[in-house]
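Think of the structure tokens as a kind of shorthand, similar to the way a musician reads notation: each symbol stands for something richer, in this case the local conformation of the backbone. In the example below we present two proteins back to back. Begin with the first one, reading the sequence and then the tokens, and try to describe in your own words what changes along the chain.
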Amino acid sequence: MGKENILSEIKVAEDKAQKMIDDGKKRKNDRIVSARAEAREIIKQAEADAQESAQSAMRSAEESIASEKQVIIESGNKEAEEIRKQASSNMDKAVENLLTELERSIHA
């Protein structure tokens, strides 16, 4: 083999090696871009899931509060009705006492 052939083969081998290196770098960069895109999608989905979970928790808390509110209102209404009945009963007794005292003062 001549010196030129050897140099030519070395050059071809170097070119092949450089192409392999370039291809490897390109594949690496493509994988990085793909991994970053996938990571962004995972983060986006996780944020959406977290938002939905927060909204669900909020709805659940609101329902619980509404239920407790209704129980408190009903209890307050019952208590108000009992107070009204007691006041009505006391009013009747007060009127009777006033009438009795009025009759006593008239007959006295």
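Once you have a description of the first chain, move to the second and do the same.
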Amino acid sequence: MSLLCTPYRSVAPGFAENPLRRGPSGYSRAMTDPGEEPDYRYTLANERTFLAWVRTSLALIAGGIALRAFAEQFSRAWIPTIAAVTATVLGGVIAILGYRQWRRIQIAMRLGQPLPRQTVAVVVTAGVVALAVVLTLGVIL
């Protein structure tokens, strides 16, 4: 059989076909994840998006800690404290929502369903706008 007649494989050789490959629970991946393994490029793209949400989450948490450290420079110290708490809580929420979105997309790809709507971007946008309003009020007042 020539290479031109070889059927296209959507997974790396030996990845999904290996019955000894075990997931984190000790069971084979075929027993824990529904559906078929999607093309690895889509899985990796989904993981990169998840890691971007984690980076955003860590940046907001670090920003919240920095805001709290410099709270004394504002005339009203409670405003940067509220902004710091908002930033760190928003960072934690984004990390949780990012994982939830990664998992929902992964399952949808495995089942061949349409991708779910993006909810994390709405939360990030609303949180950053609220954070900007609080900090602007802190500078003005």
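Compare your description with these statements about the second chain. Helices lie at 29-32, 40-69, 78-111, 120-140.
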